[in-house]
Request: fold
Amino acid sequence: MLSCSQQRSGEGLILGVESSCDETAAAVVDSGHGIRSNVISSQVEIHHEFGGVVPELASRHHVLNIIPVIEAALAEADVSLGDLRAVAVTAGPGLVGALLVGLQVAKGICFVTGLPLVAVDHLLAHLEAPFLDRRGQPGFPHVFLLASGGHCLVGVRHGPEGMEVLGATRDDAAGEAFDKVAKMLGLGYPGGRVIDELARGGDPAAIRFPRALRGRKGFDFSFSGLKTAVKQHLARRGLPKAGQELADLCASFQQAVVDMLTERVEQAVECTGLSEVVVAGGVAANSHLRASLERAAAAGRWRLHLAAPELCTDNAAMVAVAGQRRLAAGKLADMATNAAPSWARHVG
Ligand code: KG4
Ligand code: ZN
Reply:
């Protein structure tokens, strides 16, 4: 049972709640961005056979898991609701039925306890993940790259609130490209991690896939041509058998994505003259992208901030940090707050 005692307040503890897609997550984070607990219940096994997230199934599993996950996060942090300063919850963007589960539970907790409710933009929350690393917090302003399953954006964060978008994908998101190619290869959902692992034994130069919009002005991305190129390659050559052929295909596809992402970051650094870069979102967990960005940072003499791989994919610790920012700015939500499947970027 959720309990509500009054003890150990004043540490600025925030409960973060995340349910925008296929992870039900809750975390307790303190005002110094220290993670007291970070509990994630993944639905990957449930959606695996469908090759993508089935929204209705996602909502149903969030309903089943949300209370146990929140209870586990409070227990792991050894706190009760009365110890909290506020509850932060992802309000968008995401699947509306999935978002509503976290939002309604967060509202319920705030209604009963009187705690402030903070509604968080999932994309801004991703950009907070590197701030959970105590070894060196990013400074403002900085360039950011957000590459997840649903979004691919590059831009500038001038301060703790909001973001200026310089470019975005014109079609698929980077993570979506990984997921669609994995589906074509019969590797299941989600595709990023499995392609990352298979690519380790492959030759990234084995197949020359296209890099869309390369060398063009502007900061937009496009991944659908790459996806089509992989499809055409498979139509010509057939599905690769497990082994070297599969590893080479994964490595070559991944190299194309990594080149496109790295190039846009370098371009944004050059154009803005900024010296710090935050890279976030599920695709930032990719080992090859991380290595490519490290090399680019060393060559360009800018500072790269990457969250630990497990904090790149959806979690509630990042939601709690985003919540702290909004709380500090006095931007509270209320019981009328609704889920925002497409959150307006300028809201901040
Ligand atoms: O940020 P995230 O957890 O959820 C969204 O907000 O979309 O990102 C999930 C995406 C999926 O498309 C997944 O395939 C991709 O991140 N991903 C990766 C890796 N781990 C997760 N992509 C490439 N390499 C990885 N290691
Ligand atoms: Zn996400």
